[in-house]
Design goal:
This protein is mostly helical and 225 residues long. The chain has seven helices and no strands. The chain is globular, with a radius of gyration of 18 Å.
C-alpha cells in the first residue's frame, strides 16, 4: 500500500492507480487472484475501462480521503475560482483518467490501487500552469516557489516510501500542465474554445492510446483474457 503525502495527497497502489474492487489486469493464474468468486476475470485488460474513472472515487480509509480532499481544496478552490467550474471539472476528470491510464500502462501488472491523487495532481499541474503564465506577478511567483518545493518533496517521497503510485502522479501532473494551458488557451475567443476542445480531446486520446498499447502487451505476454 502506498501513502503519498507531499501536497496532502494519498494514493494507494494496487493496480496502477486504479481501484481495489478486485485485481484489474493480472494473468488469470496470478496467486493473489484474478477472478471473482463466480470465475469471472476482471480488469481493464478485459475491457472494463470504467475503472479508469471510478478509481478516483475509491479510497483506502478516512485518512486517505482526508488528505486528498485537503489537497483538492487547497489547489482546486483557486483553479475553480480563476477558470470556472466547468473547466475545473474538465481538468479534474480528464487528468484523472490520464493518470489512471499512465498507472495502468507503466505500473506492475499485478498491482491494484485506489485514490484520487492522480486527478489532484492534475489540478495541481493546472495550478502551476496558471501561475506560470502570470509569473510577472509577485503572488504568482510565490505560488510557483511553493509548488516547486512540493514537487521536490513528492519526488523524494516517491523514492523513499514503498508503494506510492508515482506513475499516476506524474501522468496526472503532466496532463494537468497541458490541461491548464488548454483551459485558458490563447488568442481570440474562438481560438480559445478550439484550443480547449482539441487539448482535452487530445489528452483523452493519449489515455486511450496508453490503455490499448498496454492491453496489447499483456495479451501478447499472457494470451487472451
Amino acid at each position: 500500500m502506498n501513502n503519498d503525502a507531499a501536497i496532502g495527497v494519498t494514493s494507494y497502489t494496487t493496480n496502477n492507480g486504479l481501484q481495489n474492487e478486485a485485481p484489474m489486469n493480472f494473468p488469470r493464474w496470478y496467486p493473489t487472484g484474478t477472478t471473482m468468486p463466480n470465475g469471472d476475470i476482471v480488469g481493464i485488460a478485459v475491457g472494463q475501462n470504467w475503472r479508469l474513472l471510478t478509481a478516483m472515487f475509491l479510497h483506502a480509509g478516512l485518512w486517505h480521503i482526508a488528505f486528498n480532499a485537503y489537497a483538492l481544496w487547497i489547489f482546486g478552490s483557486m483553479v475553480e475560482q480563476e477558470l470556472g467550474r466547468v473547466r475545473f471539472l474538465l481538468i479534474y476528470f480528464v487528468t484523472g483518467i490520464v493518470a489512471s491510464a499512465a498507472s495502468y500502462a507503466f505500473g506492475p501488472y499485478y498491482a491494484v490501487g485506489v485514490g484520487a491523487s492522480g486527478a489532484v495532481f492534475g489540478v495541481f499541474g493546472a495550478f502551476v500552469t496558471y501561475n506560470y503564465r502570470r509569473r510577472h506577478l509577485a503572488i504568482a511567483m510565490a505560488r510557483l516557489r511553493s509548488a516547486l518545493t512540493l514537487i521536490v518533496i513528492n519526488a523524494v517521497l516517491a523514492v523513499a516510501v514503498e508503494g506510492i503510485d508515482w506513475r499516476a502522479h506524474v501522468g496526472g501532473f503532466v496532463a494537468g500542465v497541458i490541461a491548464g494551458f488548454a483551459a485558458e488557451g490563447v488568442g481570440s475567443a474562438t481560438d480559445r474554445r478550439l484550443i480547449l476542445v482539441v487539448g482535452f480531446l487530445g489528452l483523452l486520446a493519449v489515455a486511450a492510446g496508453l490503455v490499448i498499447w498496454h492491453t496489447n502487451q499483456l495479451q501478447a505476454q499472457f494470451g487472451p483474457f
